[in-house]
Amino acid sequence: MTPQRTWFPRARCQESDAPSPDQDRQKRWAELFDQLDLNKDGHIDRLELRVGLAARGLSRGSLERIVEAGDTNQDGVLDFEEFIQYLRNHERELKLMFRHLDRNNDGRIDAAEIQHCLHTVGVNISLEDATRILLSMDKDGTMTVNWNEWRDHFLLNPLTNVEDVAHYWKRSIMLDTGEQLMVPDDFSEEEKKSGFVWRQLMAGAVAGSVSRTGTAPLDRLKVFRQVHGSSDFKGNFLSGFQYMLKEGGPWSLWRGNGMNVLKIAPETAVKFTAYEQIKSLMRGSNETRTLRIHERFVAGSLAGATAQTAVYPMEVLKTRLTLRKTGQYSGMAGCAKQILQREGITAFYKGYVPNMLSIVPYAGIDLAVYETLKFAWLNRNRGVADPGVMVLVGCGAVSSTCGQLASYPLALIRTRMQAQASVKGGPKLSMLALLHSIVTQEGVAGLYRGISPNLLKIVPAVSVSYVVYEYMRIMLGVDIEGGL
Q1: pLDDT at 61
Q2: Structural domains in the chain?
Q3: In angstroms, rounded to a whole number, what is the distance separating the alpha carbons of residues 126 and 63?
Q4: pLDDT of residue 131
Q5: Which of these, 276, 275, 348, lies nearest to 305 by C-alpha position?
Q6: Per-residue burial over 305-314, b = 16 or more CB atoms within 10 Å of its CB, e = otherwise
Q7: Which residues form the EF-hand domain (predicted)?
Q8: What's the rounded Cα separation, in Å, for the pair 23 and 385?
Q9: SS3 194
Q10: Nearest to 370 by CA among 403, 416, 341, 322
Q11: d(CA 425, CA 435)
Q12: What's the farthest any 2 CA atoms get from each other in the chain?
């Protein structure tokens, strides 16, 4: 009997010492607080959140919302009690969302339920895309997401409803490198009706304006090297800038930038409107059908061609203004009037054919590389958060570079044709004749004249575009995580 008396109390003691689910959760939260509290002062500020959650790709606006939601005493930081209370409240919201998604109440979310969730808020995706989303959360390889996986994935992401989750899953970023715009994003009917889309496009247009202005000197150097060729415009980057500064002073580095910025808004508006109309025609009677990637490419290319046709005279004006010498034109209107009087209306569409031909390789490779890199990251990082903004920015920079490499010879020929009448009164060659002339005189390398400054401006253009875009989304009230 004695061994039994000593054994039972010991068993009861072990039972009472076993951590309860709530204790286990509190322990995890305490460890998380300690990880985020980098200076160990007992508080977490916005900078510590930004550093600690950098791998999750949360925007500045999302981090602000975490602090605002948890900061009950309004001191601008989160102490331990505030942090724990925020996580407890957010976990309750996540539980409600999980139950909403789990349609068959089996305690797990599968790809079909993700697809259905997005469909209910007007976002139509294929089962394949829904499976990719699922794989980003599935840590145990069951092809389903249980409550623990769901909670861990979204615990430090300030989403409050299923619509926010839908925006997070369809995240993308509108980046402007000063070249052709990427294939437009897909928006839900609810987003279109609410005005979300136009605020989003406005944020992209402002970001593009700042980005293009910041990289305008490199763009002007590119145009000079494209047009004047190796015989007329020798030297390296430094000598090119010295020539422009000597001829027109510091402000001459931004010649043509006004027109380059001015054409962003109409080009974006026409491209988006045309894209929506073309998608509608491709879907036919099945209005909810999700377009496959090659259909998106075709629709995006046609929309790009439509937008380019509408704004092409502005492209010609941009090239002429970029190349102008001091006092040559009184301004945009003066340039347009002079071209019209001396060369006629057809001058505003010089280089149109090579420009249209360049859309297909640029858009096709840009989209294909972007999607391939993004999904390669997802497949390599299963169970990790969706691609953060830096991953998407990197994918955008690489895909834009590849697109430019493929389409650059056509872009060079277009620019030469646009500028022909303003360069030494030279002969007005056709596209094929110009191609033959460049290859004969300068070799194949001549088709890539000016590509160095063009490639150099991609990283600063993408970086500036993203930062401005993020701030504009916050200002315009569209800073929903993943809503690009």
Answers
A1: 67
A2: 23-109+151-168 (1.10.238.10), 189-476 (1.50.40.10)
A3: 31
A4: 81
A5: 275
A6: bbbbebbbbb
A7: 24-59, 89-124, 125-160
A8: 26
A9: helix
A10: 403
A11: 19
A12: 115
Q: Which residues of the chain have pLDDT under 70?
A: 1-21, 54-61, 121-125, 162-163, 166-191, 194, 229-235, 287-291, 293, 378-379, 381-389, 421-427, 477-484
DSSP symbols for 64-129: HHHHHHH-TT-SSSEEHHHHHHHHHHHHHHHHHHHHHH-TT-SSEE-HHHHHHHHHHTT----HHH
Instruction: Name the amino acid, one letter, at 256.
Output: G
Residues whose CB falls within 8 Å of the CB of residue 134, separated by 6 or more in sequence, listed in order: 109, 110, 111, 114, 143, 144, 145
- The answer for residues whose C-beta is within 8 angstroms of residue 91's C-beta and 6 or more apart is 151, 155
Q: Which two tokens stand for residue 301?
A: 């290319």
Place of tokens 């136009």: 198
pTM score of the predicted model: 0.67
Measured distance CA(87)–CA(29) in Å, rounded:
8
Q: Quick check: 129 and 181 in contact, CB under 8 A?
A: no
- The total of other beta-carbon atoms located within 10 Å of residue 139's CB is 14
- CA-wise closest residue to 71 among 79, 61, 63: 79
The tokens describing 81, both together, are: 């009690």
Q: Return the DSSP state at 175.
A: -
Nearest partner of 359 among 432, 435, 301, judged by Cα: 301
CB 309 within 8 A of CB 353: no
Note whether 332 and 317 are within 8 A (CB): yes
Identity at 252, one-letter amino acid code:
S
Distances (CA, A) of 240 to 236, 237, 450, 452: 6, 5, 11, 12
- Judge residue 279's burial from the number of C-beta atoms within 10 Å of its C-beta, 0-12 exposed, 13-18 middle, 19 or more buried: buried
Token output for 403: 């697109």
Name the CA dihedral angle for 213, 219, 224, 225, rounded to a multiple of 10 degrees: 160
Q: What is the pLDDT of residue 259?
A: 93
